[in-house]
Amino acid sequence: MEPSQETASLVKRLAGPSIGKAGLAKDQADINRIIADASKGSKFYENEKKKDQELTKKIEQMLKLRDELTSGADMQKVEASVDQLLHKLESQRDLSQTIVHFDLDSFFASVEVLNNPELGGKPFAVGHTVVSTASYEARKYGVRSGMASFIAKKLCPELIMVSHGMSEYSDMSHKVMAICKRYDPQMCPAGCDEGYLNITAYCAEHDMSPDACVEHLRSAVYSETKLTVSAGIAPNTMLAKICSDKNKPNGQFHLPFESEAIVAFMGDLSIRRVQGIGRVSERLLDSIGIKTCGDIFTYRATLSLMDKQFGLMHLLRTHLGIASNSVQPPQREERKSIGAERTFPPLGDKQKILEKLHEVCVELESDMEETQWTGRTITLKYKLDTFEVFTRAKSSTRWISKKEDLFAIGQELLLPELPLTIRLIGLRVTKLKDLYGPDPSIGIKRFFDTANGSSSPNKKRKLSASDQEISCETTSNIEDLPGPTDDESSNPVPNGLEATKPTSTRSRKPESKPRPPSVERERHICPVCEKKVAIENDAFNTHLDSCLSREAIREAQAESSASAESRTSPKQGDIWERWTKMTPGSRNSRK
DNA sequence: GCGGATCAC
DNA sequence: TATGGTGATCCGC
């Protein structure tokens, strides 16, 4: 056998991001070999190789830095100071909430089997050029989500490819989410096939153990949809998510709610399993000796010296198994961007490329109209036939949402870059403004559409701070309340410095966790919906606008039972839209 | 504010 | 023959 040219890291990289997340098959080395061979020579392969080599170089530099930092430091002393931090973190551990993460088993594939029982027991995959979901039979061959279909075929020649049935997935997902909401009305969906619940109240009210509650949930989902779901039960979202994988498929896992057991559980857990640590961070950490969450403790002094590179606090919390235990549905006003992008066979002709840009503009306009957003900053994204990705952005003084405007700015950004051979074009709009209202003719649009427009004569006529105060203070409620009740978003890992000093020692219900000063944001309670809202950057304006509009809807409906629904529907829409649009041309049903 | 990178799903 | 789309965040400048 000829020795392969690839480094171990490249072979692993080519196997895709989902490998290493799940348990790896015993013959994973053979599988990786097949994947690398099938990829070899392609532009995709060359780009992956380039990225892999750049990362290797970055690691070399990082190790040099580590040696400099550690050689000049009193490691014992550093360790002692980290141990103090650990002690402080441990003292803040909150085991009072019961958090559940649920996850439908191979969701798309399971729905396909329901609709076409012939597929049962066969190796098949949902997707077109790329595998979205593989059936468990296909996974035995090494077929994984995100894998190019032609590679999946090489791994499993009998593989059946099935195209997406998005509307069916949509229906099923809605059903499942509705069932889960019975156990916590504040359920937070995390995509179409998973989500988080806080079942503390439900268990208390129904005098039920967490295990029984989750059994009940899973059996309800199965009896009402014939879909199986796995779940994890733990004191916070990070642990619950990890636990839901433990007895997959169709199982549940309950982590003991005890500090020692939790730290032991984390001890031999691969660092890759924790949210926010992807393939790159895995390699970076591996290079300094960290493979498991237990290794974080071993190398705590090094991590402390390299806080900037690794984010010490987050890793310490991870080692201890401490994370947010707050579960909240996403808020509409939290949205930061809306965009569209499309891949196509590589094009070099300027006119053809502009046609693609136009198509993207048409789609984006339609999405922005449907979801009632407008924005000021346009970012063009393009991918060359070499798979290299670039972005170019431009901020406008006007609110952009029409395809003509999108296209004009898109062209302005793209034309100076040409000539190029391009395989993907995308546009994204940021600096958003919410236009959501019950009726566009009487909605926010009418009052504020021209408010910030440079073309508008009454310039800067936007709802100012003093305007806010009027509407808010008359309802007498705007005051800094006892601090944020949830913070610590379940968002990606901050890979940077975190405060070592609590800003507050006040304890509160879901979790008492100090917020780093650098992240401290002012929040006020909205007089309408009584939720806390960031006050800066127009966010409060935006929120209040939409909230008042929703209030108007509710009053018009004069139907108290519908009020909760009407308040939450826009948020759900956002999440929904996020995954509904996962695949191009599959919004409706398959062909 | 911009551009590159990383990550989740 | 052939490797997705949406959205978020962070860092360095």
Word description of this protein:
The chain is an alpha+beta fold. The chain folds into 5 domains: 80 residues, no CATH class; 96 residues, DNA polymerase, domain 1 (Orthogonal Bundle), CATH 1.10.150.810; 118 residues, Reverse transcriptase/Diguanylate cyclase domain (Alpha-Beta Plaits, 2-Layer Sandwich), CATH 3.30.70; 117 residues, Dna Ligase, domain 1, CATH 3.30.1490; 114 residues, no CATH class. Helix content is 44%, strand content 15%. The protein contains 23 helices and 14 strands. The strands form 4 sheets. Strands 5-6-1-7-8 form a 5-stranded mixed β-sheet. The protein is globular. 33% of the residues are buried. The structure holds a DNA duplex (9 and 13 nucleotides). One of its GO terms (biological process) is DNA replication. Its EC number is 2.7.7.7. One of its GO terms (molecular function) is zinc ion binding. Pfam families: IMS, IMS_C. It catalyses: DNA(n) + a 2'-deoxyribonucleoside 5'-triphosphate = DNA(n+1) + diphosphate.
Low-confidence runs (pLDDT<50, min 5 residues)?
A: 442-591
- Amount of beta strand: 5-15%
In the CATH scheme, the class of the largest domain would be Alpha Beta
Domain unit count:
5
Instruction: Write down the CATH topology of the largest domain.
Output: Alpha-Beta Plaits
Please state the average pLDDT score. Answer: 80
Tell me the CATH superfamily of the largest domain: Reverse transcriptase/Diguanylate cyclase domain
Number of strands: 14
What is the distance, rounded to the nearest whole angstrom, between the alpha carbons of the first and last residues? 45 Å
- How much helix is in the residues? 40-55%
Strand order of the largest sheet: 5-6-1-7-8
Profile the largest sheet.
5 strands, mixed
Structural class: alpha+beta
Number of helices: 23
GO cellular component, one term: nucleus
Organism: Mycena rosella (Pink bonnet)
Biased composition (Polar residues): 465-478
GO molecular function: damaged DNA binding; DNA-directed DNA polymerase activity; zinc ion binding
